[in-house]
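fwd from M.: "can u put these together and see what the complex looks like"

so here's what she sent:
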Amino acid sequence: MAEVKLLGTWPSPFSYRVTWALKLKGIPYEYFEEDLSNKSPLLLQCNPVHKKIPVLIHGGKSICESIVILEYLEETWPQNPLMPDDPYERAIARFWVKFVEEKGVEVWIKLFSSGEEKEKAVKDSLEMLKTIEEQALGKKKFFCGDKISSVDIAYGWMARWLEVIEELAGVKLFEPQKFPRLHAWMKDFKDEPVIKGNLPGHDEMLVYFKHKL
Amino acid sequence: MANAEHVKLLGFWASPFVRRVEWALKLKGVDYEYIEEDIFNKSSQLLELNPVHKLVPVFVHGERVIAESFVVLEYIDETWKQCPLMPQDPHERAMARFWSKFVEEKILFASWKSMCSLGEEKEKAAKLTVDAVEKIEGELKGKRFFGGESIGYLDIAVGWMSYWLPIWEEVGSMKILDPLQFPALTSWMRNFLEHPVIKENLPPRDKMIIYFQKRSQEFSSRPRG
């Protein structure tokens, strides 16, 4: 099979989604760390529309947008499936992936505001976490059942990035007594060997994002 | 057989998101029951079936309930195999998903914003829309439809541009779809609107103008937060 390349950056949760999927499916690939302040000609050529990472290059063709990449990986390498077989269960999975895509980033950014806007962002974040805890995850171990799926990967930013956001924004959202199921999920997710071996360090992340604010 | 179970669609006549689902069902010849929702006075059925977003479309197939139009489109394509909408090739499928996301994020919301705002804000949103339209124009590459010779997933996903966008341009007094700047898209719009299934499944233009004029006024008169 043609070679696979991944253009990513170490602090990006979107980049990690693709890394996790590639490793969980056992797909060999070559990783290129991008400097977003000095984007490589390859990145600009392969993602002319958004000029962002992650970008997957397979057999000379590029695919952009982390969730689109996850679907591509699933369809091209069916081994170690990350999506359910049944079309309805797949639809539910896609629904929850879309949910975190749309609500997640929007809410985090607003946590860094102040006054009334920040208060609203805190309220919205808590509501979002409640929906995820009760409706997306429910009583399951992982979002699609007993094994890690693309949905867990999509929510995986919570495994490291959420605590960093909380620290930097000076908010405490993700409390164990409020979200016991999500806390259990996060522990199981981080215990998964592929995830455990592929998470950025907490302190490095704190330094990096503090610098960015 | 799963395909024979009852199909129901909760929708709203002016919604481009609902219409996408109807086009897919009609192209595949799937019978369904349509329920018109008053989105300004939501029914208990809608709130029960889509508690997360409380929006239309909501698609019901037997006991299965699915919300979010793109998610519904993929489910329909996987469940009813006739008249396939998504391309076969994984890279082409990725492109269809990529561009449908792009148009939704960069063209739909920007043009809506342009329609509903005034002055500099309107101009700025209109310019962003035009920049984005330039990118999707390039994707047609001389094809009749985005899907090639026949309508596909991406045509359905961006089909609102052929009918809703010109209406929004009129209501909002902005110019986005210049035929000289976008000849491929202009041609595609004509092909799309002339397709027998699409032609028979469009909301009435005069009603749309009145409806979006009202919505646009409501949005522009909201206090800025």
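replying to her w this: Chain A is about 55% helix and 10% strand.
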